[in-house]
Specification:
The protein is an alpha+beta fold. It folds into two domains: about 40 residues; about 100 residues. It contains two helices and seven strands; from the N terminus they run E-H-H-E-E-E-E-E-E. The strands form two sheets. It has a four-stranded antiparallel β-sheet, with no helix packed on it. Strands 3-6-5 form a three-stranded antiparallel β-sheet, with no helix packed on it. The radius of gyration is 19 Å and the shape is elongated. About 15% of the residues are buried.
């Protein structure tokens, strides 16, 4: 699915209002606002990547695990971003006290000409002893800036 951004004044005002009200504005929102307010055309494509990661055991270590998913858009891209669309984490054997939870993601452009992008999941989910098996999934939404 592709979205061509040509916005009327009311939508521009809404985006500007949103940007003013939120304390954390990402580089992508700044760039998007610049393109909209500057009048430059911009094409955005997006795709969901579902990552059902294998059961893992931290083996007593407080270590971040990494998992990857990949998609090829088939068109040349300038920039890519990723957002978490949902996730589920659970212990494989029984209920436990949760020690920590970390779920993060980012986009890696593998081949800009072919439009191949990887989603990298950074994950940490552990009990008090960091020694019980963990399972789950993460759904990522990839956004890319398409070169027309």
């Amino acid at each position: 699915m592709e979205l061509a951004l040509t916005l009327d004044g009311q939508i521009k005002e809404s985006l500007f209002f949103f940007a003013q009200r939120n304390a954390v504005i990402t580089e992508e929102v700044h760039r998007l606002a610049h393109c909209i307010f500057g009048g430059e055309p911009m094409s955005i494509d997006f795709h969901e990547i579902y990552i059902d990661f294998r059961t893992f055991n931290p083996n007593g270590r407080n270590a971040e695990q990494r998992f990857f998913g990949q998609h090829t858009f088939g068109r040349r891209i300038r920039k890519a971003s990723a957002a978490i669309n949902g996730f589920e984490l659970y212990f494989g054997n029984s209920d436990h006290e949760i020690r920590n939870i970390l779920v993060g993601c980012d986009a890696i452009i593998d081949d800009a000409n072919a439009g191949t992008v990887s989603a990298r999941i950074k994950l940490k989910f552990a009990d008090d002893g960091y020694d019980d098996p963990v399972d789950g999934w993460v759904n990522i939404l990839m956004f890319v800036d398409i070169v027309d």
